[in-house]
Structure formats: C-alpha cells, structure tokens
Amino acid sequence: MIAADSKPHSRTIRGSRHTSSYRSTTARGTASSLAVARHARALWETFKRGSLLTIPPATWNGDGSYTFTIVGRDADVQSAIECVPDDVLVDIESVGGTQIDADSVLDDLSDRQRAAVEAGLELGYYDEPRDATTEDIAAELGCAPSTAAEHLRKAESTVLRGLFDGRR
Q1: Neighbours of 145 (CB within 10 A)
Q2: Which residues lie below 8 Å from residue 13, measured CB to CB, with a gap of 6+?
Q3: Rounded to whole angstroms, how far apart are CA atoms 61 and 168?
Q4: Is residue 168 pLDDT above 50, yes or no?
Q5: 102-164 under CATH 3.40.1130, yes or no
Q6: DSSP-derived secondary structure for 108-147
Q7: Percent of the chain's residues with pLDDT above 90
Q8: What interhelical angle do 111-123 and 145-164 show, nearest 10?
Q9: Phi, psi of 53 (to 5 degrees)
C-alpha cells in the first residue's frame, strides 16, 4: 500500500510488464492508496532473501521511484540486484559500511544464550517457515520453554545491538 500522490506511481506501475493489475483510490484530498500487484511484491521480496534486511525508511519518490537501504552479505546484495528484471532500473547510491567482526558480537553472548541460538539454528527455529518452537529448543537445552525464550530474546538483542551499533 502506498499513501502518496498516486499519479507518478500509477504511470510507473502501469508501464511495467511486471504489473498484472493495480487499484488506485483517492482518500482524503490528494493522498491516494495504491494497492500493488503480486508481481511488484515479488520484486520487493528479492531484496529480503538470504541475509538481506531492509532498513527503514523506505520512500516512494515523486518521480515514481522507490528508495530504500538494504544491508547484508555482499553475495546476497549482488544476487538480489541480478534478479531484478532488465526493464527495472536499479540505481545504487552507495556501497559500503562497517565490517563487523562476528566474533566480537558473539563473544558477548552467555554460554546458555549461544547454546539456545545454536539449537535454534540446528532445529529450524530461524527457518522460514519456522520448523521448531521454543518448546523444542527448551527440550534440547533441558530447561523450561520460558527460559529458552528468554535466552533467545537476550541473544537476539545482543547480536542485533552489536551489529547495528557498529561494534568491532
């Protein structure tokens, strides 16, 4: 759903061979909602594969373009760009960022947090769709499900804060 002036977006979406249908409705003055077809969503899904993460804000621009920031492994970024159809222009504004030493972030995990995450990875807790539950991880660790969930939350918080705070 896009909440913006729909005219430039409608032209862009209507002109793409990847759009099978769309609907534009005016709501409150000049703002419009534009429901985008499944094919456009599939294009955006390209940038959510593997290690890729979209960092807000994502912006629809007045010229019909869409600006967003992704982070992830170099190979996943390259693969996503290669999957974009030829008639869709990709303009890369910058490449780079902080390289983070994974060990420096993982060293901040307690032994139980690390064990919980490793069990989660092994059992499929982080798969899409999820193949394991906190109950499965708890059984693996020999603890209560609430304890396993707490270990996972704390570990995830530690890792994400370490990554986004740019720790080395």
Answers
A1: 15
A2: 19, 22, 34, 36, 37, 40, 64
A3: 35
A4: no
A5: no
A6: TS-HHHHHHHHHHHHHTTTSSS----HHHHHHHHTS-HHH
A7: 25
A8: 100
A9: -140, 130
pLDDT at 2: 44
Burial of 73 (0-12, 13-18, 19+ CB in 10 A): exposed
Q: Distance (Å, rounded) from C-alpha 4 to C-alpha 74?
A: 33
Phi and psi (nearest 5°) for 34?
A: -125, 110
Residues of the chain with CATH 1.10.10: 102-164
Element (H or E) spanning 75, and its range?
A: helix 74-83
Supply 88's token pair. Answer: 């869709």
Contact call for residues 125 and 131 (beta carbons, < 8 A): yes
Q: CB–CB of 113/148 below 8 Å?
A: no
At 23-69, the pLDDT tens digits run 555 555 444 444 444 556 667 778 878 888 877 777 777 777 778 88
Report pLDDT for 12: 64
pLDDT at 157 over 80: yes
Q: Give the tokens for residue 63.
A: 């010229």
